[in-house]
Structure formats: C-alpha cells, structure tokens
Amino acid sequence: MKEGKKLVDKCLEIREGKRNLKYYYKAYCYSSKLRRLDNDIFKFCNVNLQLQIARNGSQTLQKVSSIEESMVLLREKIIQEPPPTPVVSCAACAPPKFTVGLDIPMKKLKTLLLKEEVQLLLLASPGGCGKTTLVQMLCQDEQIQGLFKDNILFVTVSKTPNVKVIVQNLFNYKGTQPTFQIQSDEVAIDQLPQLLNHIGPDPILLILDDVWDGSESLPENFKIDIPNYNILVTSRTAFPRFRFKYNLEPLNEVDAMKLFRHSLQDGISDGISEEDIKKLLDNLQKSLEFPKDKITIKECFMDLGSFPEDQRIPIAALIDMWAELYELDEGGIHAIANLHELNTRNLASLVMSRKDASEVNSYFNEDFVTQHDILREFAINQSSQEPIEKRSRLILNISQNNLPKWWKEQKLQLIDHACLLSISTDELFSCSWCNIQAPNVEVLILNFQTKNYILPEFVEKMDKLKVLIVTNYGFFHAEISNFQLLGSLPNLKRIRLEKVSISSLCKTLVPLKSLKKISLFMCNIGKAFENCTIQVSDALPNLTEISIDYCNDLVELPVELCDIAHLKKLCITNCYKLSTLPEGTGKLVNLEMLRLRSCTDLSELPESIRSLHKLGILDISDCLSISKLPKHIGELCKLKELNVKGCLRLRNPLPESILNLKQLKLVICDEERAKLWEPIKEFFPGLKVEVAEKDINLNWLPK
C-alpha cells in the first residue's frame, strides 16, 4: 500500500505537466503500473487474507475494510483517461548511409524550395529513383535545419490518404491538441492554422511524401496563407496543376552501376531474398495502376517495349499502331493524351517540337518518345507474364543468330493470342527465319541493322495484319526483299518504312487494296516509282495519306503519285532537295491537306493546285525559296488554314484572288510577312493572323 501511494503521487505530478509526447509516454507507463498494482492487491485480498480471516475474523475484516477504503481512494486518484493514442513520428528518417548521384539534384531542389515565390513544390520521378532519399538528404542539410529547426514535418501519404489522421498525427507530434475533436477532413483542415501558429514563429516545412495519382488535390488543402510556410510534395506523377516542380531524373549508367554493386555487397552480408525482388517489382507495378476508364494507357506503356533500347520512338508510328489496336482516333489526339499521361507519371519522356496553332492536333513527324532502360525492361517484363503462346504482345530481341530456344525446337510455332509482334535483330543476324503461325497479329514491328533484309515468310499468313512498321537502325540504307508477300494480306492498312531503299520495293510492287497510309522516313526514293511493275494508282487504289519525311534524294514528286484519286493528305517535310511539284498535282481533287514544310529548294507551287477545291490546310512553312503565292490561290474555296512561317523570300504583294478565300480563318507567318496581310484583314472579319516564334529543332538527329 505504501508503494501504491508513492505511485499515485507520481501520477499526480505528471498530471499537472504539459501534455506533450513525454507526458503521454509517462501517463501510459504509470497507468500500466497502477493496473498491475490493482491486480496484485485484488489477489492478495481474495487469497492471502483468507488465512487471516480464519485466525482473527473481526480484526481481519477491519483491515480488509481499511484496504478497500484505500483502494477506493486509489482508484479515484488513478488517471481516468483512456490509453493514449500512439504518437506517430513526423520526423524525417535519416537517409541511407550510401547514396550516389543525388548531390546535384539535392542542391537544385534546395535552391528551388528556398525561392521566395515558391510555397508548394512538387518533386516527381518514377518509383525507385530516390525521391524519398533525396528529401531525407534535404532534411539533413545544415542550411535547411538552420532555417526550419524543429519544424520539419514529414508525413507519408501513400495510396489512400486520411486527412483526419494526418492532421491529428501532426498535433500529437507537436504536443498540442486541436480546439475541436477532429471528426471530418473539413474540421481537420480548419484546425490546421491553429497548429501552425502554435509551432511558430520559426519557418515550417511540411513534407507530403508519396502522393498518388488521384490525390493531387490533397496538398492544396494544406496550403495556408501564413509567412515562412513551405510544402514539399513527392510523387511518381508530375501533376500538371503544380506550378513549381522538380523532375528527378533516373541515375545515369555509371551511378546506377555503383549503387548496384554496393547493393550486391550488402546483399552478400545481409542477404537479398526473393521477397526483396518481389517488393521491387511490386513498387514498379504500382506505377501502372490506372482506373478502368484509363486501362488502355497501361497497354500503351507496354507497347513502348516493342522498340529497341536507347532509340527514340516516333510518335507518328505510335499513332498508327494505336489507331488500329485500340481504335484511337487517327488524328492522334487521344494517343497524345495517353503519352502525356505516361509522361506525367514519369513512365516515358516526350520530346516534342514547338507547334503553331494549325499543327497542335495534326503534325507529329518531329515528335518522339524516349524511355529509360529500366522502364523498357519493366514494360517487356509486364508483357511476358503469360506463356509465349498466350501472350497478347510478343517481343523478341535476337542477338546474332541466336533464335529463342522454343522457336528453333519446333518446326511450326503457334502464337495464337498475340495482337502485336515485335522482332529486333542486330547487324550480325544472317540466318533464315523459322516458321511462326500468328494468325491474330494486327501490328508487326521489324527492327534490324543489316544492309539487306528479308521479310519473314510467315508474314504471308498474317491475315489480320493491319500495321507494318519496318525500321532500319543501321548506318546505311537497306534493301528489302520479299515485299511481294504483303500482297496476300487483306487487312493491311498502314505501312511505315524507315531508312530503306524504295526502289527495291517498287520492282516487286503488288496490289495492296486495303492500304490507307504509307509513311517513308529517311528513305531513298529517287525515281523508284518510274520502275514499278504496275501502276501505282492500281496497286494502291484506296490510299488516302502519304507522308514523306527527311528523304534527301527526293528532287521531284513522282508524277505517278498524282494519279492516286482518293488521296486526302500529302505531307512532304524536310526534303531539302525537293524543287518541283508536277502540274499533275492538280489531279489530286480529293486532297484536304497539303503540307510542304521545310522543303528549302522548292521555289513555287504549281498553278494547277487551283483545282484542289477540297483543300482545307496548306502548309509551306520554312520553304525558303518560295517568293510568291499562286496567282489563282483564291480558287481554293475550302481553305481554312495557311502557314507561311519562315518563307523569307515571300515579299511580293499577295495575289488579288486571295480575297476570294471566304473560309480562311488562320494565317501563320513571321512578323515581316504579317505586314502583307494588314491591308486585307478588314475583308476577313474572322481571320486570325498569328505571328509564330522562331524554333530551331534538332530532335530528328539520332542520339
């Protein structure tokens, strides 16, 4: 009983103290001791005192009564509070002892954070790049600690954030309580200024770590207009709504290898288990969690693994693929939206040129996607979870002549589920193809590096093939044989060829009656179409779009192409030697878009284009040699957009017939050319003359 009295007195002492972390800890400890004492006394009363009762009942009863009275007093003095809520630490953990490649990012992040105009800063990068480690290093920085002192608050948000819990944890950590009980997110946010004012006047840094997609509005709930208050948010997603952000790039190869070797050394002593590897994959997997209405974006991410490592992926090729695989619009708007989403989540990087108003939703020839090697391997890993015969996406990388074992061992391999098949070979590949049956493939991607390339025989049996992308990553232009196999494909709609010789194809040109679009990038064209075995218009009766880009030996547009009656889009860009368009261009009466961008030797447009009465877009931007517009341009009665940006020799007065362009809504030009339009703008009340910014674009150069 004497020990009990001492314990109660100590409890009364702490009851009068300040309710901070130390208070709750002591209260919890003494409450436990008091309960143990209560149990001991109870046992004593029920067991040991029975012996005393037998000896001296009245005396014992008197003692028991006295003890019970003491117990009543004792219970009254016991702190009548429930066990305290466990206090969650809001202090940043120390960074790992070994870090690499983060010193410069830490300095950049600190500089940005300490700018006067920055209150809310986003740190974004893919999972596993070191965001949390970088923030932990920042919290250990002498300048940051000297500025914020004990007011660095670190909160892990994660996938399902609970604002009530976060705010209550902050109150508990700083040893204070809100005025009102926190029963809702709204009350929690209303009570936050009380906490921030309580812990001042030193500056405050609130770190919200691991904010997920879908929770991007949460950090703004913590924004309060008080001085010296900063919020740093980390996320896998580079949310567009944040004005200030710092994108942490993945480690370069040298630093990544240093970290990897160090991990292996630690693994030898600490043990790297299969569970650790599963956790790593699970961490990456979380970056691919999309709502049901965006599940196609995950498929688009995995499609990026179809292209070779360390190579830029043309957005135009992706638009062709996804238009057929996922029925995205042919113009590319939805495809670009998906790529922006992947870019926002740091799963890919967009390299896009500056666009004028007329190009925003229509011109992507100079735009690319890049992807870190780790993410590419992860995309391939995600595509390879099923057995080979059940995969919807089959990606094969063949080194030298080492075909996959499963391919060599079977004379006929049935790939029944694959909708996309990608085969990449290197410069040493020379063996013949083994047979494959892939009846459901809709997109075939062939990447190679040799000067001569033979289309696989099994292509002939791909009855559902809609898109063929053939890319030569070698130094020289390649000759392709077996092109006649494509004649048996009833559903082939799109062909994209890169760095190949077209003459070898035209010698074996066969009817491709379903083909709608053909794209030629860095190809040798020359006079190939003059040597075709059949008329181009007969071989391609339903072709509606031709794209020719960076084909440097193209001097004159092949007149044979002017007979393709159904052509709607003709895009010839960056063909610097192109000097002439044939008069037959006027026969393309269904043409809706004519883009002749950066054809620097082209000196004039043929007068026959007056016949293109369906033409809505005419783009001759950066055609340096054009000095005048066609005399009868006014007969283009459907023309809505005219781009003459960079036509530096275009100084002559505009032709009178231009007043007949009643549908014209947008003219894009430079500042000097804009003056030519001033006298006639009054005749076009809805006309917008946009002065374009200068843009030097070298994105097409190989890495």
UniProtKB/TrEMBL annotation:
RPW8 domain segment(s): 1-69
Single GO molecular function: ADP binding
Domain NB-ARC: start-end pairs: 106-237
SUPFAM superfamilies: L domain-like, P-loop containing nucleoside triphosphate hydrolases
One example of a Gene Ontology biological process annotation: defense response
InterPro entries assigned: LRR_dom_sf (IPR032675), NB-ARC (IPR002182), P-loop_NTPase (IPR027417), Powdery_mildew-R_dom (IPR008808), WH-like_DNA-bd_sf (IPR036388)
Domain of life: Eukaryota
Alphabetical keyword list: Plant defense
Family: Belongs to the disease resistance NB-LRR family.
PANTHER family in the record: PLANT BROAD-SPECTRUM MILDEW RESISTANCE PROTEIN RPW8, RPW8 DOMAIN-CONTAINING PROTEIN
Protein name: RPW8 domain-containing protein
Species the sequence originates in: Fagus sylvatica
